[in-house]
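Worked problem 6 (solution included).
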Amino acid sequence: MQTDIDPRNLIGRKAFDRNGTKIGTIDEIYLDDATGVPEWAAIRTGLFSRDAFVPLEPSELVDGTLRIPFERALIKDAPDFGVGRHLSPEQELQLYHHYGLDVAPPLPFPDHDFGRLAGTDDA
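Solution. The predicted structure is:
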């Protein structure tokens, strides 16, 4: 998704699934803790129903609406963590797995200088 969009401007927009079926209205936007980039949207799926979390990364903003590349049924079956609270890393991982998205493990610390002997130049 475009990262230059103010996440506050997404709230209240309509969301549609991959087939163009309306899912609901964007209720909240969740930012990545480390980068501040919008990562998840909570979509109100009906008048008396719960919010469903959807990933923003594979989604697109098209003509003022959020197009989510998943089926409505999959979206409505997403784990329910409630809205208005912080998503834990474990909850985010559950959501990524629910949508079949790969999550890259954290990068290890570079170890290119470890194990070198002082005074040697192995480069």
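Discussion: DSSP finds two helices and six strands in the chain.
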